Structures are given as structure tokens and as C-alpha cells.
What does this fold into?
Amino acid sequence: MAVVAPPIVKWRPNLSKLLGGPKAALCFSAVILFMTWVDSLALTEDYIFTPYFKHILFVSLIYSVATLSLNFVSGYIGQTSLGHAAFFGLGGYTSALLTQVWHLPFWPSFLAAGLVAAAVGVPLGAPALRVRGPFLVVVTYGCGEVFKFIALNLEITGGPAGLPGLISPSLGVSFAHIGPTGKEAFIVAALALALFLAFLMARIEDSRVGHAFAAIREDEIAAATMGVNLAYYKLLAFVLGAFFAGLAGSLFVHYLSFVSPDTLSSNESIMMLTMVVVGGARSIPGSFLGAFLLTFIPEGLRYFKDFLGLSYDPWLVLFGLLLIIMMRVRPQGILGAETVFRR
Amino acid sequence: MLAIDNINVYYGNIHAIQGVSLTVDEGEIVTIIGANGAGKTTILKTIVGLLRSKTGSIRLAGEDIAAISTAAIVQRGIVLVPEGRRVFPRLSVADNLILGAYARKDKEVKQDLDRVYHMFPRLAERKKQAAGTLSGGEQQMVAMGRGLMSKPRVLLLDEPSMGLAPLLVRQIFETIVDINEMGTTILLVEQNAHMALSIAHRGYVLETGTVALTGAAADLADNEQVRSAYLGE
It folds into this structure.
């Protein structure tokens, strides 16, 4: 039987506690489900929540999964990874190819997407056994780019054009035919995936695995002397993160019915890491917050750009500014674990 | 209890430990003294499996542990309190101690936590404080307490006096004697040869990877060579 480890005392602001529990998860789900469902009643002529809004909602939830999964590496073991989109895109391409070339149904392909990403997480995580900090940033960034160029240049992946016309998931009925906009079932699926991952992570934090992660994050040498197997747990963090990123990527490309090398781009990796940093490393509600903020704000600013008649996207300027402000004012992120040392 | 026979450890091409043999009997305090770079820390790291010897054997109560994992070695009862303390800085004192019991599979962690708090009342007062905010002496207590949480039969201490004020060094060494008297065998690596020889039963003098001298601690403290080279007399 597994040994139940005593809980690790955390320094979290009360805000995170308030937003972190199962009650908060219920409220959050209720709000999302309400927004997804209310238009089915056809109370008004127009949509209450437009297809555009629902699209952003779905994307936010997918990024929530990506951000949560990046937390295994960049939160729990405290190593910066700039290659997370590689797992996300790899999951996307895996299920795209399985469904399109080998004509498998969506669900087994979805699972395979996670497993393939996890399998690639082993060699991609291997450098983390030897290098850390800025060196690992370079390695993960480079690996991510390699995947992008493979996708750009192979015939089977469709080159720069990617693979269009991917099937929609279905549970008896195709997801694309459920609900008034065809996005509703995708939102529910993404929410379910995000909640499952959040629940799993909450369980891991106070388990032996979570303790091992904490020890490695705080001091590798001390962790090793306590008998923590560094190689095993570092790879485990990469593999777990890759698995869920792969699943998210798969659901995402089948929602778009299209996969392109853009899903593998380093911009995506940087965005995911920024979501972790802004929301708060190691904070489950923080991951959701980071993903939602950084998905909704740029969309909101797009209106602003049209309104002011700007020729450039103001988001790109604000994005850098936001990161600098975060580093200066709250390096642990909005809902991040309270660190004792300011770094 | 612990018997090391003819170990050779390399860092790349550098032959750091050259055929060292040493024994630590049950209930003893044995010290390894020597200058910087003599290989003291390397020996300790090799015992717990963080480094590997190319030859020879390391036996704990007769069982060869030279090839098994650090986790398995900790489970069998040897733990290293590393040089420079290496507490988990942003975790609380309590969490540091709990992580010390990481390799254990039994459920008596709570009792041992109380035992450590009893031994170091200072840590009980500060159990919720982040370990990195403690003073050097308190951090050394955390590191030693964390080591004790694995319920070791043999405790390896690497430079426990490093960077501490003389008064604190005295306190730490008194605690080491207390721990020993409660039944834990101790292998102590120190640059502070004077203090180390004053509490140890036996000692080894290490010079550039080889044992230059060995004997009862009191004899070593009287030895001309040791007095001039390590005791500053």
C-alpha cells in the first residue's frame, strides 16, 4: 500500500486558497457550463454568448490544460522549459495522422496523441538530467524548433500548409453537430480534461511524488542524499507534462479541424510559459487564471486596435511590459506560491 | 558496522581517492581530517552512492552496498548530511524534516519528528518558518535533524562546523556526541581537526586521496605531524 505522506506546508496567499479548493472548481465549472448551455434555450434572437466568445472560451480551456501540464516541469521541479508547444503540437499531429492516414476513430487517436507525446518526453527530458536553468531553456527551445522544422518539411505532415479536414470527435453524435454553435461539446470536453488534470495535480502535490518534486526543486544534491531518484522524477515530470499537453493538442486540432506547424511554434511555448509565470507557478487556479487572462486580453485588445485605427497589435507591446511588471512586482505570479526569497 | 575496502574514485582523469580503506565500528565516532581537496567529501559521497568507486567494496553490517542506489542505501541506514547544510530553502523547517524521512516506508515518521524537535527545541519553535531564513547554526540543526529523520544507523556528517561561530560549533559538536550516545554511529568529516579529534574515538588523516595516518583520536591529537599540519601548533 502506498504510504500517505504528511502534508507539505505551503506558503500561499489566502487568495489562492480561496480560489483553489473543490468548491471553487465547482463554481468555475458551473459558470462555464452555464455559458455553454444557455444559448441552447434560444431565449433571444441573437446569441447571448456568441460563437466568437465560445471559441475564446474553448481556447482558454485548452491553454489551461497546457499551462497546468507545463507546471510539472516549470512549476514542480522548477525548471524553465521553452519547448512545451512541441508536445502540444506533437499530440495534434499524432492524432491528425492517425485519424486521417490510418482512419482510426478520434478517441483512440486522442489517447495515442498523449502517449506519443509522453514517449517523446523521455528523450526531450533527458537533457534536464544534466543541465538546468538557462542551459535547459536553450535545449528545450532548440528541441521545440526541431519539431517545427520536421513538420514543415515532411510530406506526410503536409509541410507548411499542414493537414486540413480533420474529423470531429464524436460520442454517437459528432461534436461539431452538438449545440447551437457546434463548439459546446468541445468546451465541455476541454473543461473535463482541465478539471481531471487539476484534480490529479492536487493529489500529487501532497504525495510522495510531490515531495520528491519539491525536494528536487529546492536543492537537487540534498534531494539525492535523502534518497530521491533525480533521474526518475525529472523524467516523470517531463513525461506527465508531455502526456497532458499531447492530449490538449489533439483536442485543439480536431476542434479547428486543422493542424499546422504553427501549433509547434516557439511563440506558443513562450505563451504557455508566460501563462505559468503570470498565473503563478505551482498554483492550480493560477494556471487557469494565466491561461484565461492571456487568451482574453489579446482578443479584447484587438477591438481596441480597430477602434484606435492602430496599424500594429498593441498586445505585443503590452505583453513585454506585462512580463517586466510581473517580474518586478510579483515574481511568483498572481496566485503563485509565496516565496520567501525574492529572486 | 561500516567497512570500506580499497576504494578508488575518479573525477574524469583525476584519481581523487586512491585505494582508501577505513572502518567504523558500531557506536563509534570516527573522524576524517585533512586539508581542502584531500578527498574527504568524495569518500562520503561514494559511501552513499552519489559517486561510484571503480574497485573495492563498501560494506554495511557485512552487506556490500557499493553498487546499490542512494535511496536503497538510505533505507539500509546510512545518511549523509551534506557540506554547506543544503536545507530546502523555501520549504518550512517541518517540511525539510519530513523530506528527511523520504526513503522510509514505515509510518512512525510522526514520532521521529517529535524526537528531532525534542533534540532541537529551536526547530520546534520555528517549524513553520522557511528554512532558508534561519541562521547558519539553525540551518545546521535542520540538516542534521533531516538526516536523523531517515533513522540512520550510520550518520555521515560533512563539515558541520563550516561557517559557524565558535560558540555554535561547540553546541553542534555537543549535539553530535548526544546523537552518538543515543546509539547512532557517526563518521565525521572536518577541517576543524581540533574539535573533531576532541569528540571522536578514532581518526583518519587524509592527504591527497590516501590515508596518511590513522589511530585513536587522542593519539592523533598528540602526533607531531598532525599537530603541526592540522592543529596549527
About this structure: The beta strands of chain B are 2-11, 14-24, 29-34, 57-60, 63-64, 78-81, 154-158, 185-190, 202-207, 210-216. Residues 1-77+152-233 of chain B form a domain with the Rossmann fold fold (CATH 3.40.50.300). DSSP finds ten helices and ten strands in chain B.
